[in-house]
Design a protein that fits this description.
Largest interface: A-B, 28 and 22 residues
Order of helices and strands of chain B: EEEEEEEEEEE
Order of helices and strands of chain A: EEEEEEEEEEE
Strand content of chain B: over 45%
Helix content of chain A: under 10%
Number of helices of chain B: 0
Oligomer: heterodimer
Helix content of chain B: under 10%
Distance between the termini of chain B: 40 Å
Number of helices of chain A: 0
Largest sheet of chain A: 7 strands, mixed
Distance between the termini of chain A: 36 Å
């Protein structure tokens, strides 16, 4: 399947700081990427849809000013967690839709965020 | 709201046996379904997908069945191996428009392989 790279895989930060997570599609161009959040032993919850060249569409209850999404190119979307707090600690996972493969969503390896 | 759910949180099978993981969905407007496998600390790995105009699709050692009448989806894994141990999620796509998209995931089933 297609490869989606996510970086960093693990980050620890102090409360009040901002953290940027990158998501790249390595072998295909993705006009649409997605950001999910997963708490321990729970399922994935969609946070937002990231469309190349336009504003992201956020799910209900997700603060767009706190979770900034930028999709400036066909292979890169970034998620910035601004003014992070301990309750933002979670596993953040991105996915990219491959238009050459029936629009299957391929996922990155995830980023473990721990806010102290 | 409507969501995708699962019948069992944990499934234990003997190595070499067939595994069947079930999923119930409630949104009749969903047109696409996917099964993912997630190992601990990793992102979901695509297994197999099926569109709503089909009722069965086969891959290597895996088969997905879709019953739209009762809104039921299942994943069958043949000759289960130790490497199949993971949490399996079904996910559905419901067309919403307006730039909103993405998958709705079920709660997940933890598949445990007994030697």
């Amino acid at each position: 399947g297609a490869v989606v790279s996510q970086h960093p895989s693990w980050v620890i930060c102090k409360s009040g700081t901002s953290v940027k997570i990158e998501c790249r599609s390595l072998d295909f161009q993705a006009t649409t990427m997605f950001w999910y959040r997963q708490f321990p032993k729970q399922s994935l919850m969609l946070m937002a849809t990231s469309n190349e060249g336009s504003k992201a569409t956020y799910e209900q209850g997700v603060e767009k000013d706190k979770f900034l999404i930028n999709h400036a190119s066909l292979t890169l979307s970034t998620l910035t967690v601004t003014s992070a707090h301990p309750e933002d600690s979670s596993f953040y996972i991105c996915s990219a839709r491959d238009p050459q493969a029936r629009n299957i969503q391929y996922f990155g390896a995830g980023t473990r965020l721990s806010v102290l | 709201g409507e969501s995708v759910g699962l019948h069992l949180p944990t499934l234990s099978v003997q190595e070499g046996d067939n595994s069947i993981i079930n999923c119930a969905y409630s949104n009749s407007a969903s047109d696409y379904f996917i099964w993912y496998k997630q190992e601990s600390g990793k992102g979901p790995q695509f297994i197999i997908d099926i569109r709503s105009n089909m009722d069965k699709r086969q891959g290597q050692r895996v088969t997905v069945l879709l019953n739209k009448t009762v809104k039921h989806l299942s994943l069958q894994i043949a000759a289960t191996q130790p490497g199949d141990s993971a949490v399996y999620f079904c996910a559905e796509n419901t067309p919403r428009g307006g730039g909103a998209d993405g998958l709705t995931f079920g709660k997940g089933t933890h598949l445990i392989i007994q030697p």
